[in-house]
Specification:
The chain has three domains: about 1-180, Leucine-rich Repeat Variant, CATH 1.25.10.10; about 185-250, Leucine-rich Repeat Variant, CATH 1.25.10; about 260-460, Cyclophilin (Beta Barrel), CATH 2.40.100.10. Helices cover about 50% and strands about 10% of the residues. The protein has helices at about 1-20, 25-30, 40-50, 60, 70-85, 90-100, 105-115, 120-125, 135-145, 155-160, 165-180, 185-195, 200-210, 220-230, 235-245, 255-260, 295-305, 330-335, 380-385, 395-400, 415-420, 425-430, 450-460; strands at about 270-280, 280-290, 310-320, 320-325, 355-360, 370-375, 390-395, 435-440. α5 (about 70-85) runs parallel beside α7 (about 105-115) and α14 packs antiparallel against α15. The chain starts with a helix and ends with a helix.
């Protein structure tokens, strides 16, 4: 009975907390963080997270809950810190908690530290020399999240590629791969790695030089020598790919937030907004209703405002099922945004023909940048937690006509390859795919929801 009453209290309390003015976030929610009932602590954290940076005054009260006895409260505390935004004064404490965190909380703390940016890099680089392999592993995992701010760790990461522990080598290679697009300042170190390193180090250095692209032109002689003299076929191939990458035209200038997700303004989307997708098959107009899935609608709105979906491929189109898109054409952007996940929304609307939802994995809170149109009535997706954020207002026939001839792997595009090589991979291997040429926010009007998906469904039934 006590648990039942607590849950009832929670369901009423959370909205009340969430609706208080942002300026009162610290003084109104902080007392509940010290409640004896963990459910109330959890509710208070969620209320603060909803306010985001406006709850900055409560941050110091949230930090101790990273030591809470309940792991799910600790995890929610980490998510709340990400939502509010930590700063340099919190770095030391966050690093200490990172070293003892379980895997779900570790991933959240990595994001929190990455959001701090450059001030968090130095203590993590220092940990790369720690005696305990676990501490080195945690630091390596965190640095992989940092994007451009993590570049100063590159020289030390290259040294760790020669560590005797296979796990450390693997994590160092992954961190370097994700920092590669920002390695321009460290091209001399990468050249030295090509000349003196082990085959694995040479392979990693060549891949990073490929990510740097034309700015790594001084590495061309060393890459040519490596391509000719290396005994490993993998190293030869990586060196050849780097030479091709350096020889291409400079990349189109991108919105700064595409390469540094911390620049995205954490603002709520309008209650209703409309989007025009100009695709290679024609125009598709979407109507997004925030109440259907607030976290998803906010993320979609934020991504649209920085041009994320321009020149993005519909890489997975399965007739009568889905048309999926949202992996960027520039591998640097995919590296930045891959782990920028959002909390789950409950499915408030069914996955009917013409609705649009974020893709996700089986893990909780795994939605990031990929979305899909429902090309059929996919009720099974409701039970799996896929939450539609809106519907196609016009252009359903365009969505149904998107090229679907490749299917899923092994015959179709591989998502990991798209993430690491971008549109260059798709253009070379899957030239018939359709693309979003441009995504445009259009003026929202006060007309009632069109229920286009339901209308289309009724038309199909009449046929």
């Amino acid at each position: 009975m006590r648990l039942f009453l607590t849950v009832l209290l929670l369901s009423a309390w959370t909205p009340i907390l969430a609706q208080e003015p942002a300026k009162k976030a610290g003084e109104e929610s902080t007392p509940h963080l010290e409640a004896d009932d963990p459910l109330l602590r959890h509710a208070a954290l969620r209320a603060l997270a909803e306010r985001g940076p406006a709850a900055k005054d409560a941050l110091e009260s949230v930090l101790p809950l990273l030591r809470d006895a309940k792991p799910w409260v600790r995890l929610e505390a980490g998510r709340t810190i990400v939502a509010i935004g930590a700063g340099k004064p919190q770095v030391r404490f966050l690093v200490q908690r990172l070293l003892v965190a379980n895997i779900p909380l570790e991933q959240v703390l990595c994001v929190a530290l990455a959001d701090v940016g450059a001030p968090a890099v130095k203590p993590l680089v220092k940990l790369l020399a720690a005696e305990k392999p676990l501490h080195r592993r945690k630091a390596l995992g965190a640095l992989a999240y940092f994007g451009r701010h993590g570049a100063p760790a590159i020289p030390r990461l290259l040294e760790l590629m020669d560590d005797r522990r296979a796990a450390i080598k693997r994590l160092a290679a992954e961190a370097l791969r994700r920092l590669g697009p920002w390695a321009e300042e460290y091209v001399p170190e990468l050249i030295d790695a090509l000349k003196l390193g082990s085959p694995q180090v040479k392979f990693t250095a060549a891949r990073m030089l490929a990510q740097v692209g034309p700015a790594a032109s001084e590495a061309v002689p060393a890459l040519k020598e490596t391509a000719l003299s290396a005994t490993s076929a993998g190293v030869k191939s990586a060196a050849a790919a780097a030479l091709l990458s350096i020889d291409i035209q400079p990349r189109k200038e991108l919105h700064p937030a595409l390469l540094d997700a911390t620049l995205v303004k954490n603002k709520a989307a309008p209650a209703v907004f409309r989007v025009k997708l100009e695709t290679t098959k024609g125009d598709i107009v979407l109507r997004v209703t925030r109440a259907w899935a607030p976290h998803g609608a906010d993320r979609f709105w934020q991504m649209l405002r920085i041009g994320f979906f321009d020149n993005v491929a519909f890489f997975r189109v399965l007739n009568g099922f889905v048309a999926q898109f949202g992996l960027h054409g520039d591998s640097r952007v995919n590296g930045v945004w891959r782990d920028r996940t959002i909390p789950d929304d409950p499915p408030n609307k069914p996955n009917l023909l013409g609705t649009i939802a974020f893709a996700k994995t089986n893990d909780p809170n795994s939605r990031a940048t990929q979305l899909f149109f429902n090309l059929g009535n996919n009720g099974a997706l409701d039970k799996q937690g896929f939450a539609p954020i809106g519907e196609i207002e016009s252009g359903l026939a365009v969505a149904q006509a998107l090229f679907s001839g490749y299917g899923d792997p092994p015959g179709g595009p591989d998502q990991r390859a798209i993430a690491s090589m971008g549109n260059e991979y798709l253009a070379r291997r899957f030239p018939k795919l359709d693309y979003v040429k441009r995504a445009i926010l259009i003026k929202t009007t006060d007309v009632p929801a069109s229920n286009a998906a339901n209308d289309n469904d009724k038309k199909d039934k009449k046929k």
